């Protein structure tokens, strides 16, 4: 790659050497004209400088010119150089007095089809252009008139191809669970008639942006053509061009280009280009770069296509899937079952078994030996459909092995005539491998899982607030442990669970460093953030390459249980109905109110205010109607009460445990700043919709004097987990609350905890999608389940806050390496985008 970053120091060195000469003839450079008008061409023009038009569609193009000295009206003298005379007619560049920007037109009425014309327009007069400044004082234009033909598949007549993007998601993210970092759309693709393989398409359309953002997103879009040069199918590249998109107002339009010598001053390398094969164009990872046109990043190129997923499919093209997914069972009775799932296009999988855990490189070499028939034929087996491979009676006996197989199929290139293909004509398309441990019959005791664990109470770190009331010491040591899936749970929460199956699905993995410490003889940490007077169990599923085994250890903390220290409660944490608060208790108490407001810059549980509950004075029904004041967590100018019911005496809620449940409707609940205020709820499954329903949350006692609101089980069973209380006007969101907790002041033990990092990240992901006001959705009628309240819950994992037992620190600072995120919002309403600054490419445009 050629760069010019060392030229300046070299020139400085020459100047130093020159100053040492005794006899130097020095001629002063021409001085800048103090009255210079400073006329220049902006680096980014709204019109492309490489023009491509169909004959008869356009005979002129307009460009922008700016100046710095705006005092006088002027006509700028220019020097025009063209490779063919009389093709380009350049309109005079004229500024009115006080005007700092103007436009001029270049016309080309005599241009002929298929010929490439060039034109250079230079401002050379020092009265009009700076001699030494960085302003651009020349404009180079290229023009070709060409016909474009719609690409159509000859066999099927299809006229639509597909465009998948892996550029936008590298640089712009959006906090919307429906967002797609690699959006793909159908579109028409055109080929230039005089240059086969040179394509254009409208790729960066509103449709693609909506798929990318998971909904409407604010941006500017000029709807320009996107060009791809695949005239050489082995050297496909994007010419330098604008996407037509402005996602962040202070960054201007985004330009893209392939990192190839056609665009940049660099040496050629085959790995920089994309390829066109069987109608599918793909590009190498980081082979595309992006350049913002304005702001601090203007002129800088950043690597795109980070995942190598940028793809264009011509009409009728098909992407072939040649893959085999391999899974393994643990040895049992001298047999290991290897599951093999063949993709639709895989015709054969030819495999052999080798001794040892082979690396990817070693497996690749063995696959090539199989393909080249360097492995004895009797050792190679073949399957032609998905199924199970039973491995048994291995000659080497108990040990580690690797199954390596070659994947065979026939794409159009391998089988251009179509129809059935003889096995010997199949083409190897790749390989797959899996390592496993094999235990021969009778050897089970030789490879048992060796791991010792324990939980201990210790006050050795009490000086840092880590005591037997809120922490426990975990230790472990073993031999040959390859993985441990683990978690720390309240013992009561995992009673009756199949912990082996649960940990396989939900368990956290020990890191390589942790496993090295365990196998090295000792691993020890303090489990912090526990609650008092509570029994916890560490559960770990350890695997040694042959078999796995469940290990558990339990301990009960000292001190007093504080409900306020719990980060989240589940419906299963509710006390029995007979221990739920009475209606009189609810009404007679002014409750301390804690919640998480998703709209906070750093969403954490905090004291929102107080809540009071009253009898509904307008109650003329048989149900116990109540009103709740303070639940939205905002100050009202008028009103502010939300209707509610007392759960035990409300017929539709019969069988559900709890004390109080709100009723939400489209009727305003109060007034703020002269606007009617509404209250609704949002579900985790569909954050785009705001619901007005009865009983979205159930508030129930989780401890004496503590009432927590959870999603109502009946709705959860219907696929709507209502976890957010939304308060808004038709123009402004006021609060989005979750983790709502009411506490009797007389029993409030304080100690509101900080949320775990992953919980904060989850709330932030939800925040952007929730902050735009929506219309109400009146649906999901409350229905009574045959098994009311039978919602399955996942026990909370308390395996957070690991501190080294040998030298714990009060605070752990975690450094992250990767993307640098800067939150930005384009003008107007729309979803919040986040710009990701990735690694920069040291390249210079030609």
Describe the structure.
- The protein is mostly beta strands.
- The chain is built from nine helices and 57 strands.
- Strands 40, 41, 42, 43, 44, 45, 46, 47, 49, 50, 51 and 52 form a twelve-stranded antiparallel sheet that branches. The chain has a five-stranded antiparallel sheet with strand order 13-11-25-22-21. The protein has a five-stranded antiparallel sheet with strand order 18-20-23-24-57.
- A hairpin with an 8-residue loop joins β55 and β56 (833-837).
- It starts with 6 loop residues before the first helix and ends in a 5-residue tail after the last strand.
- Residues 1-27, 413-422, 786-790 and 807-830 have low confidence and may be disordered.
Give a short summary of the structure.
The chain has 846 residues and is mainly beta.
Low-confidence stretches: 1-27, 413-422, 786-790, 807-830
Gap from first CA to last CA: 13 Å
Which structural class is indicated by helix and strand composition? mainly beta
For the report, how would you describe the main beta sheet? 12 strands, antiparallel
């Amino acid at each position: 790659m050629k760069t010019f970053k060392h030229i300046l120091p070299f020139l400085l060195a020459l100047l130093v050497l020159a100053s040492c000469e005794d006899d130097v003839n020095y001629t002063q450079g021409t001085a800048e004209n103090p009255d210079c008008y400073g006329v220049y061409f902006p680096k980014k023009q709204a019109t492309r400088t490489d023009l491509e038009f169909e004959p008869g569609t356009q005979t002129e193009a307009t460009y922008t010119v700016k100046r710095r000295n705006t005092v006088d009206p002027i006509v700028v003298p220019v020097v025009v150089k063209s490779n063919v005379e009389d093709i380009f007619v350049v309109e005079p560049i004229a500024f009115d007095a006080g005007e700092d920007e103007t436009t001029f037109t270049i016309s080309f009425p005599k241009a002929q089809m298929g010929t490439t014309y060039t034109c250079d327009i230079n401002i050379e007069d020092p009265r009009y252009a700076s001699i030494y400044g960085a302003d651009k004082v020349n404009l180079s234009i290229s023009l070709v008139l060409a016909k474009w033909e719609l690409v159509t598949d000859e066999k099927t007549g299809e006229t639509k191809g597909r465009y998948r993007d892996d550029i936008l998601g590298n640089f712009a993210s959006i906090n919307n669970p429906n967002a797609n970092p690699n959006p793909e759309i159908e579109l028409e693709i055109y080929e230039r008639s005089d240059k086969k393989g040179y394509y254009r398409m409208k790729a960066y359309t509103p449709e693609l942006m909506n798929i990318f953002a998971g909904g409407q997103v604010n941006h500017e879009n000029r709807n320009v053509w996107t060009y791809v040069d695949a005239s050489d199918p082995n050297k496909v590249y994007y010419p330098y061009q604008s996407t037509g998109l402005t996602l962040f107002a202070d960054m201007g339009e985004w330009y893209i280009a392939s990192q190839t010598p056609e665009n940049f001053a660099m040496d050629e390398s085959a790995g920089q280009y994309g390829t066109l094969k069987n109608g599918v164009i793909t590009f190498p990872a980081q082979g595309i770069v992006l350049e913002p046109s304005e702001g601090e990043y203007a002129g800088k190129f950043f690597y795109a296509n980070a995942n190598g997923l940028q793809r264009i499919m011509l009409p009728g093209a098909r992407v072939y899937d040649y893959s085999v997914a391999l899974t393994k069972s643990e040895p049992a009775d001298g047999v290991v079952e290897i599951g093999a799932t063949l993709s639709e296009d895989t015709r054969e999988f030819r495999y052999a078994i080798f001794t040892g855990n082979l690396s990817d490189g070693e497996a690749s070499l063995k696959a090539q030996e199989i393909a080249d028939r360097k492995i004895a034929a009797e050792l190679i087996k073949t399957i032609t459909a998905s199924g199970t491979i039973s491995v048994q009676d291995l000659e080497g006996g108990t040990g580690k092995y690797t199954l390596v197989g070659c994947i065979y199929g026939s794409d159009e290139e391998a089988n251009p005539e179509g129809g059935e293909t003889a096995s010997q004509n199949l083409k190897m398309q790749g390989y797959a491998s899996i390592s496993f441990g094999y235990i021969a019959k009778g050897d089970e005791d030789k490879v048992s899982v060796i791991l010792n664990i324990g939980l201990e109470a210790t006050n050795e770190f009490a000086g840092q607030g880590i005591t037997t009331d809120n922490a426990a010491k975990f230790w472990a040591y073993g031999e040959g442990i390859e993985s441990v899936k683990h978690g720390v749970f309240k013992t009561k929460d995992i009673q009756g669970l199949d912990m082996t199956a649960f940990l396989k699905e939900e368990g956290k993995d020990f890191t390589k460093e942790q496993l090295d410490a365990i196998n090295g003889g000792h691993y020890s940490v303090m489990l912090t953030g526990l609650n008092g007077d509570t029994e916890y169990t560490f559960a770990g599923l350890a695997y040694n390459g042959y078999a796995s085994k469940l290990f558990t250890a339990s301990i009960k903390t000292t001190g007093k249980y504080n409900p306020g220290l719990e980060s989240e409660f589940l419906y299963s944490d509710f006390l029995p109905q007979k221990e739920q608060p009475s209606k009189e208790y609810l009404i007679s108490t002014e409750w301390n109110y804690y919640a998480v407001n998703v709209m906070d810059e750093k969403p954490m549980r905090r004291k929102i205010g107080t809540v009071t509950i009253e009898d509904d004075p307008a109650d003329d029904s048989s149900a116990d109607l109540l009103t709740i004041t303070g639940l939205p967590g905002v100050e009202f100018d008028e009103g502010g009460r939300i209707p509610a019911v007392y759960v035990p005496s409300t017929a539709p809620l019969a069988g559900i445990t709890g004390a109080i449940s709100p009723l939400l409707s489209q009727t305003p609940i109060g007034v703020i700043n002269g606007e009617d205020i509404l209250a609704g709820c949002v579900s985790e499954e569909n954050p785009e919709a705001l619901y007005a329903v009865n009983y979205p949350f159930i508030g129930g006692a989780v401890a004496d004097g503590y009432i927590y609101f959870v999603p109502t089980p009946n709705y959860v069973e219907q696929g709507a987990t209502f976890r957010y209380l939304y308060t808004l006007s038709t123009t402004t969101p006021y609060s989005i609350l979750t983790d709502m907790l009411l506490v009797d002041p007389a029993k409030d033990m304080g100690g509101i905890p900080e949320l775990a990092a992953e919980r904060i990240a989850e709330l932030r992901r939800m925040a952007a999608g929730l902050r735009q006001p929506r219309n109400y959705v009146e649906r999901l009628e409350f229905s009574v389940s045959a098994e009311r309240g039978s919602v399955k819950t996942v026990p909370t994992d308390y395996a957070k806050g690991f501190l080294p037992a040998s030298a714990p620190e009060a605070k752990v600072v975690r450094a992250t390496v990767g993307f640098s995120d800067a939150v930005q919002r384009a003008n107007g309403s729309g979803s919040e985008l986040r710009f990701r600054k990735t690694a920069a490419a040291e390249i210079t445009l030609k």
